[in-house]
Specification:
Chain A is an alpha/beta fold. Helices cover 44% and strands 19% of the residues of chain A. Chain A contains nine helices and eleven strands. Chain A is elongated. In chain B, helix 4 runs antiparallel to helix 5 and helix 10 packs antiparallel against helix 11. The chains are: A alpha/beta, B mainly alpha. At the A-B interface, helix 1 of A face helix 3, helix 7 and helix 9 of B.
Amino acid sequence: MSRSVRLGAFIIATLAILIAGIFVIGGKQYLFTSTYELKAQFNDVVGLDAGGDVRVGGVHVGTVHSILLPNKPGDKVTIVMDLGKSTHQIIKQDSVASIETEGLLGNQYMAISFGSPKAADVRDGDTISSQPPLEMADLLNKMSGILDTSQQAIQNATEATANLNSISAKINAGQGTAGALVNDKQLYTNLEQTSSAMRDTMVHAQAGVTDFEENMEAMKHNFLLRGYFKSRGYQDSAELAKNEVERLPQSEPTKEFSYSAKQLFDKQDSAKLKNQKSLKAGGEFLRDNQFGFAVVVVSAGMAGDTQKDLVLTEARAMVVREYLVENYGFDDSQLKTFGAGKQTDAGSDGAWGTVRILIYPTGTEIPPTKQTPAGVSAETSSEQRTPASASAQ
Amino acid sequence: MIDHSVSAAANMPVLVPEPSTVPVPAALPNKGLITQFLEWFGDLGIFFWNVLRAAVTPPFEFRELFRQLDEIGSMSLPLVALAGAATGIVLSMEARFSLTRFGAKSLLPAAIVFSIIHETGPIITGLVVSGRVGAGIGAELASMKVTEQIDAIEASAVNPYRLLAATRILACILMLPLLTLAADFSGLIMGWVTQALSEPLSFHQFINSGFKGSDFSDFLPPTFKTMVFGLIIGLIACFQGMRTQGGAAGVGRAATSSVVLSSLFVILADVVLVKLIIILFP
């Protein structure tokens, strides 16, 4: 190798090292890429130095160019940053700069948050908003506060545990009601005996109620009371709405039998039938013809108490249905009742009201059964109201 | 060569090097140490002035300069690279040991990179070159002096300052930074290899974390301060060689004293230079 070649190789090789070094260091400072400038203002930069990293999303994208002290008290310290052009797409006007620490005691660096997509782009030299840095001293203050609180909590827990201890000791020793419950075998035996005695009592009470019902039934047929039920026309108020529908169907009936209540019933306020024979035409029609279902609709005149009239119409419908079912053979599930109560269009004998048998064709939907009869619901609602108002007073 | 007194030497024509004082005390027992010291510095100043004047005025001795660039630069490369590599390995091992002890192992690349490019690379290069080149120049010029070749050059109307001293000193100044870069490079490579042998670490990662937070003031001033080292080495070696007296023994003394003095002045100058760099490049 000639001398000049050797010298040339040496010089080129070492200059290449020099250039590589310059580019490694210059690359760290973004000296050879196009950059733009951003500013942020802080009350306290917590020891951040010029040349420090600027990170977006944890990626090193620029350097702190300079840190300028304010001109007058009350102003903020301004940090000037150089950022690579590549960050121009993600840093927006609403990005926030903050000073973070690497690890617990590491170097300080600037962190800039991503902007929202809709916010305006930043321009060279813009000042973005900043978030005051978290200082170790603040952190320690907060920590000591938390420690105080948790110490108190632990103290409370200790006291509670002590109380629990003393309670369980007392229970163990058999003191107090709980102690007696846990420790006294006799108490348990007593309780067991009491509950079995109560069970026996309940059985007896049930038998008593059955006997009472039978007695009541007998009394209804006793000659002293028989008259009341007979003139009323029916025995059991609880069965008034057993076959009653809630409403009449929308469709028109195929056949209608209409009677005056005066013609059928004993008295104006009674459900006792007197002229059953006049129902014959209706009964025979029901027996001899195919039909979907039929409703006995009873309405009362405008005289008298509304509630009483509703009960009366329900009772009359029931009585007519019972008569038809007993005397003419057909499927009794197809015959329903409907107590219409007071109605203005009550026919010629306005005060008495009317009885109609409406017959609907096959395929008509049977309306749902009424939940509670008028008489019963009226009584229960008044019973419910009384204790509630009493307790309110 | 006839001995001259100090005053006679100072008044001599500048073209003729007449170093009359010998730095070895045994040669002139009649002078005090302080006087000799001051004399030596005075002669050095005159010598430097002569060289400077000769260097900046044509004709320029490019042939000789290239010869010296090769002699001082490329011929020193293996030695300097080896010294740098060894330093890198040692630094890497030592830093690993001590930083692991303090739990700061993540700073290891930075510690190695900074210590090599800041100080170790330049000073190792300075000392190695002052050993190799200082001894070479000193011995060569001393033997030329005692065999009266310098007088012959002068007699053929060639300025020996220009031909012999200026070319060597300039070659030292130019080559030292380049040799420093080579030392830095081999030191970093070997530092990385040593780290990578202990635990997996890519070269890219090593360089990235090593140069983290560094700027040009960490790299360029320490590298180019070695030009001062080069000046010191070349100047002292040429000065010691060209003022040699007393035959073969004088050649030996000149070689020794150029190495010793140039190494010493390199280290002393480094003290001032480091302080100066810290002040100028904060």
